Amino acid sequence: MYGALWRILPGPVWLKVIELLVLLLAVLAALFFWVYPWVASLIGVPDATVTQ
Amino acid sequence: MSESRHAQRANGHPRRVRRRRGPTVVGVLGEILITAGLLILGYIGWQPLWSATVIASHQRDVAAQQSAQWRQSAQTPAPAPDAPPDYSALSANPPVGATPADYATFGILYVPRFSASYAVPIGQTTDLPRVLNDPDRGIGHYEDTQLPGQPGNFAVAAHRSGPIGGNPFRDMDALRVGDPIYVETQDGWYTYRFRSFEYVWPTQVDVLDPVPHLAGQPGTDRILTMTSCNPKWAGSAERMIGYAVYEGFRPLGDPPPELVAVNPNVSASVGT
Q1: Checking phi first, is residue A44 left (phi over 0); if not, alpha (psi -120 to 50) or beta?
Q2: Cβ-count burial of B225 within 10 angstroms (0-12 exposed, 13-18 middle, 19+ buried)?
Q3: Is residue B86 part of a domain?
Q4: DSSP alpha helices (H): ranges in chain A?
Q5: Domains held by chain B: number
């Protein structure tokens, strides 16, 4: 999987490393701003109030 | 390269080289599992970062804006520096605000024990999506309980753990007897002193009574009650309750010096 990704990326090794870092940042941003908040909304929150 | 291939062919293993090149089912499965593990680790790292840092700092900003707005519109004259003001008469009979509209922000809670710059807006009702989970608020006032300064119980709720919101009561267990707790409203500053904890079942609403656990008593003392979930980070089978007792009142233009000394967002003079 990751080996295929490495072969698909164009350019010399130094360029591939930069491309990988950009991809990694993009994935992290998508996780932090969309995926994880969505997962958090599924998990729900422990109730903090007292009710009858 | 070509030499080693020839050598392997000569050894009689021509297929092995081709197999190593292509992805195997086990290899891809392993990579997927490692990736899934990293994603879950990422969530565990993201969750406290998000709630404790991003949302908490957003709540601080909202609180600072609200506070500045109140203090500018109040136009309370700054106290004369040579004569320390005497607020004892005012403290004995502090002003009580009008009942806020549902979901409206009407107060700000400051607890220096939680952090020096801690400030979280208090909204009316304990509605989950509109107050407790709302990044613009975070603390909810039980609408059937009394208001700051009113004899009786000013009871509020906030999250202590969980993936949504800034968890304003995250460090509730760090409170010690005598810790100051300040409530700022558009009328002024109410100072409370932390007194005690209690752990109750989620249905024990009598902690919200004007005199907690004494139904029907009108209550002459002014107390502040905080409710949150317990155990921390492990569901909400119980409730953690924190009680604080009213100490005094100060006008908006003259915030408590103890708070001014620690909180960089609270200044002694109006409009700065």
Answers
A1: left
A2: buried
A3: no
A4: 2-8, 13-30, 36-43
A5: 1
The residues facing B192 across adjacent strands are B181, B246
ipTM of the prediction: 0.84
Tokens coding B187: 């009328």
- Could you report the per-residue pLDDT of B55-95, keeping only the tens digit for each? 899 999 999 999 999 988 876 566 566 667 889 999 999 99
Residue B55 to residue B78: CA distance in whole angstroms:
33
Q: Assess B202–A contact: CB distance below 8 Å, yes or no.
A: yes
User: Does any domain span residue B111?
Assistant: yes
7-36 in A: which are within 8 Å (CB) of B?
28, 31-32, 36
| pLDDT, tens only, B157-182 | 999 888 777 889 999 999 999 999 99
Q: Give the best residue of B31, B46, B198 to mutate against chain A (max A CB count within 10 A).
A: B46
Q: Residue B47: which of A40, A44, A47 has the nearest Cβ?
A: A40
Q: Is A35 exposed, middle or buried (0-12, 13-18, 19+ CB in 10 A)?
A: middle
Q: The domain containing residue B174 runs over which residues?
A: 48-74+92-267
Residue pair B158/B120 in contact (Cβ under 8 Å)? The answer is yes
Tell me which residue in B31, B163, B203 faces A2 most closely, judged by beta carbons: B31
Q: What is the pTM of this model?
A: 0.82
- Whether residue B11 is contained in a domain is answered as no
What pLDDT band is residue B219 in, cutting at 50, 70 and 90? confident
Place of tokens 């807006």: B121
Phi/psi class of residue B235: alpha, beta or left (left: φ > 0; alpha: ψ in -120 to 50)?
Answer: left
In terms of Cα–Cα distance, which of B91, B107, B177 is closest to B142?
B107
CB-based contact B196:B243 (threshold 8 Å): yes
For B229, phi then psi, to 5°, come to -85, 155
Residue B25, classed as helix, strand or coil, is helix
Q: Does A41 touch chain B (CB under 8 A)?
A: yes
B215: CATH: 2.40.260.10
Nearest by CB to A1, which of B23, B229, B236? B23
Judge whether B176 lies within some domain: yes
